[in-house]
């Protein structure tokens, strides 16, 4: 609650009003995704929904202001975007009365009990698309079997990201009749939008062949990445590192790690240009730009037990993906990519240094092309059309 109060205090009155359910955006279909990553992945599904019915109107909600701005930049016809209402019954009553949706489509794991129950009580349907569940999360849910069966029983249509997640959700109570095909929206990710003028300016300073990105890093990973990078600099002094922590609020602590290694750096949050050995990308909503500038991308959350993050976004931008051993969140995609030799596994600073130095231009281009091919094979884009049609029949 203190975190929620602090966030509400920081936001403006318009944002607070949306959090408390005030809206004028009536729409028959409500699509919800947590933030930038989920909604970027959901963009092809949103397009398929709008293409399926030329009269359809959507309301898209998310949890962050940056995600709202991103969706607004898509300039979608017949779709509005706003912050999601709090999962409080009196807030949702106001929101649902104004929006009057007949269908809620949840992207990935935003399973809010009141939201789902009140949709069902109004005669609406709830669909969950591209859901994932790690073994750890399944164990936590299983400790509350009553709540798990109640929440899972509210789902009218369910599409998991992978077979393992599907089995875990089914064991927790998703009805067999609700289970649809495997749908991993993040495998369909197109290159994200980025500031072209800024890219042109930065690309003059950061040649792609010598630029490495560490994306969405967690505590414990930055030190490994920086140690590996510093060693690699002894052999490749032209290398440059873009370091993008998962949570920019940690940027001061990450900056201290850089100083301790006597590496020169600048910070994006201070509007400082790149050009030093390390560029600390401590902002939100610009990851597509960092992907586009880099030839190699270490995907964070994988050298420490966080389950890893999606490989598909960097792959869409032509990056070669490096990852650690902790991949529970995306186990099947990484297994397919590893089997094809399209990504590289690292388990230590030494491994990472070796990868930074051994992957020449030819190897990178081959691996990037192979990764795109594997991502395309995992899910063909036209499979979303029948999914969209089935959703709209609920």
UniProtKB/TrEMBL annotation:
Domain 3-deoxy-D-manno-octulosonic-acid transferase N-terminal: 17-187
Functional pathway: Bacterial outer membrane biogenesis; LPS core biosynthesis
GO CC, alphabetical: plasma membrane
Keyword hit for Cell membrane: yes
A GO biological-process term: lipopolysaccharide core region biosynthetic process
Top-level taxonomic group: Bacteria
Active site location: 38 (proton acceptor)
Places the protein is found: Cell membrane
EC numbers: 2.4.99.12
MF terms in GO: Kdo transferase activity
Principal location class: membrane
Transmembrane intervals: none
Catalytic activity: lipid IVA (E. coli) + CMP-3-deoxy-beta-D-manno-octulosonate = alpha-Kdo-(2->6)-lipid IVA (E. coli) + CMP + H(+)
Enzyme category, top tier: transferase
InterPro entries: Glycos_transf_N, Glycos_transf_N_sf, Kdotransferase
Site annotation Transition state stabilizer: residues: 108, 186
Recorded family membership: Belongs to the glycosyltransferase group 1 family.
The protein's role, per its UniProt record: Involved in lipopolysaccharide (LPS) biosynthesis. Catalyzes the transfer of 3-deoxy-D-manno-octulosonate (Kdo) residue(s) from CMP-Kdo to lipid IV(A), the tetraacyldisaccharide-1,4'-bisphosphate precursor of lipid A.
Official protein name in the record: 3-deoxy-D-manno-octulosonic acid transferase
Organism of origin: Actibacterium atlanticum
């Amino acid at each position: 609650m203190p975190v929620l109060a602090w966030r509400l205090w920081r936001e403006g009155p318009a944002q607070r009003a949306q959090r408390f359910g005030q809206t004028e955006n009536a729409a028959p279909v409500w699509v919800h995704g947590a933030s930038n990553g989920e909604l970027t992945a959901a963009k092809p599904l949103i397009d398929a929904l709008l293409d399926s019915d030329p009269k359809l109107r959507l309301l898209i909600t998310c949890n962050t202001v940056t995600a709202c701005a991103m969706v607004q930049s898509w300039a979608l016809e017949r779709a509005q975007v706003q912050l999601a209402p709090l999962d409080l019954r009196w807030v949702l009553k106001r929101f649902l009365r104004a929006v009057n949706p007949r269908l809620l489509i949840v992207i990935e794991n935003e399973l809010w009990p009141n939201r789902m129950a009140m949709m069902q009580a109004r005669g609406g349907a709830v669909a969950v698309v591209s859901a994932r569940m790690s073994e750890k999360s399944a164990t936590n849910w299983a400790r509350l079997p009553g709540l798990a069966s109640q929440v899972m029983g509210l789902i009218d249509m369910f599409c998991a990201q992978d077979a393992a997640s599907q089995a875990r959700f089914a064991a927790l109570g998703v009805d067999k009749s609700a289970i649809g095909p495997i749908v991993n929206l993040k495998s369909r990710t197109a290159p994200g939008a980025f500031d072209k003028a800024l890219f042109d300016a930065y690309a003059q300073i950061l040649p792609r062949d010598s630029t490495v990105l560490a994306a969405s890093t967690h505590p414990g990973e930055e030190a490994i990445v920086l140690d590996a990078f510093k060693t690699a600099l002894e052999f490749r002094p032209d290398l440059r590192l873009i370091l993008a922590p998962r949570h920019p609020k940690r940027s001061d602590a990450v900056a201290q790690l850089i100083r301790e290694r006597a590496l020169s750096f600048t910070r994006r949050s201070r509007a400082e240009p790149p050009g030093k050995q390390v560029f600390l990308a401590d902002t939100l909503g610009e990851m597509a730009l960092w992907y586009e500038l880099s030839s190699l991308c270490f995907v964070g959350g994988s050298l420490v037990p966080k389950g890893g993050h999606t490989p598909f976004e960097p792959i869409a931008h032509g990056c070669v993906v490096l990852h650690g051993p902790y991949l529970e969140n995306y186990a099947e995609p990484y297994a397919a990519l590893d089997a094809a030799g399209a990504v590289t596994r690292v388990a230590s600073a030494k491994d990472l240094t070796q990868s930074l130095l051994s992957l020449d231009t030819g190897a990178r281009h081959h691996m990037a092309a192979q990764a795109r091919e594997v991502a395309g094979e995992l899910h063909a884009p036209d499979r979303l059309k029948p999914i969209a049609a089935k959703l709209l029949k609920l």
